[in-house]
Amino acid sequence: MPRPRSLTPEALAAAALAVVDRDGLPALSMRAVAQELGMGTMSLYRYVREKTELEALVVDLILSTVDVEPPEAPWLDQITALMGRVRHAVAAHPNAVVLTMTHRHRSPALSRWSEAVLGVLAANGFEGPRRVVALRCLLGYLIGAVQLEHLGPLSGPGTAVLAGKSEFPLLAETARAASEVDDGFAGGLEIVLRGLASR
Q1: Which terminus of the chain faces fewer neighbouring Cβ atoms within 10 Å, N or C?
Q2: CA of 78: how far to CAs of 6, 68, 95, 110, in Å?
Q3: What is the pLDDT of residues 140-164, one digit of tens each?
Q4: Cα 3 from Cα 1, distance rounded (Å)
């Protein structure tokens, strides 16, 4: 008979996230996580079948830190707070940003967050197609903003490269200006929410 399982999904996720945080996403492998846990690689297969399962566990661990209780505030401020919490949770693990984009649909934690957002929308008159559009807009903005912040052309060292591209003067000028403004998340979200409120 096989030995009883002794590792929880949370322990597996924590070990995998430790590898990603320390060594980067390319370093994530079954072998690396097994070493992190002090066990043989083949033993790890008793818990997960493949690396993608580890990746999904990592994403759910990151998102499980998000408080899904809306604050006592007007509904626009409630949505702003819920959106900001996801962004901050993901930003705490920049090496895992790509994983949060590819495995978000497999995360129970993100489903709990979505339910909380939908609860705020429903309590403020968003029903049927209007609520669908609102959630899609909010998720689209959140996902896009996080990707741009961590992986986009106007963030990080790539911005300096773009600023020097004289053959694309508007892109170069915009890249130079990017260093003089904040991340733009709050301002962009305000525009999205203002649009939703006016529908």
Answers
A1: N
A2: 40, 10, 28, 16
A3: 999 988 888 877 665 666 677 778 8
A4: 7
